[in-house]
Amino acid sequence: MIIKYIQERLSWILFFLFSQLLIILITFLESTIPLLPILYSVFLATIAFIVFLTIRYHKETRFFLVLEQWEKDFDLSKLTYAESPFERMVEEKISSQIEYFKQFATANKWELEQEKDELLSWIHEVKTPLTALRLMIERIEDEKLKERMSYEWLRIEHLLDQQLHQRRLPFMENDLYIEETDLKNIVIQEIKGLQSWCMQKGVGFEISLEKTHVLSDAKWLSFIIRQLLTNAVKYSKSSDIHLSSFSINDSVVLKITDFGRGIAPKDLPRIFDRGFTSTSHHQDHSATGMGLFLAKKAAQSLFITIEVESKLGHGTSFTLTFPKKNTLLSLATHVFHD
């Protein structure tokens, strides 16, 4: 701040030095004026000027030091050192701008809430004809047509499900209910939901769950597993998907392994990015790039660690590591109190 203040007052400093040098020059040229008293007065004036600058530095920079250290929390009570007219003008301008942005943000938040509620309502309304459509598909006698229709119905169902959870994700903490959850039951239910698609692609499941219970939110855990299973089925063909659970260092681990096309090494760091699909399969127009992104976000709120290993052309393994019971309870208490 000292350097900035000197730069700000450089014109004052240069003017003072110029005036003192001018006095000395005139004294030197005019022999009738004694030089020593003038040099003494210039010395005293310089000392007085330095003291003056020091006092003014502490007085003038107090407001700007507070402004520089001001956190981005829009708390105007911290701006309490505005004394000069220019400082008060800055403070008033900042206050008016913050008030405007608060009103603007409140209006935008209200509009977003309205849009979210309307979209959620629309999704729920669409699910009613989808259920009726499912019943109509079940009555189709042509098996090939029935399989194709079931697949397209499943795609629509999953896209709507993604949209529903995407809108709920920012408010996920308000929707959590942590309890002892039956992991095996969730896995079985999600596999049943993909049954028609798996039959069409010749995909089976090999399940080996040593640990069948975890402490988590059943609804959001189902959503995470659904995204990973959908991904595994989508990129597999005529092969089995292995699901296993076990314990490592008192933490339950769920591993989902497919033997599909795998993921290119250059894509692995980006698969959880929003909207990322693939750099090596641009022709895959059905991919939205949202499933893994949403699964990762939901997992973070549940303190679940998702890791991925893949080899191009050989398959992919997703590993869910659940937090220890005491860790989850302490972390959840800390987050909700905050």
TrEMBL record:
| Record's keyword annotation contains Cell membrane | yes
Histidine kinase domain location is 121-326
Name the chemical reaction catalysed here.
ATP + protein L-histidine = ADP + protein N-phospho-L-histidine
Membrane-spanning ranges: 12-29, 35-55
Query: Topology versus the membrane, per the UniProt entry?
Result: Multi-pass membrane protein
A GO molecular function term, named singly, is: phosphorelay sensor kinase activity
Keywords of the record, alphabetical order, are:
ATP-binding, Cell membrane, Kinase, Membrane, Nucleotide-binding, Phosphoprotein, Transferase, Transmembrane, Transmembrane helix, Two-component regulatory system
Indicate what this protein is called per its UniProt record. histidine kinase
Q: Which organism is it from?
A: Robertmurraya siralis
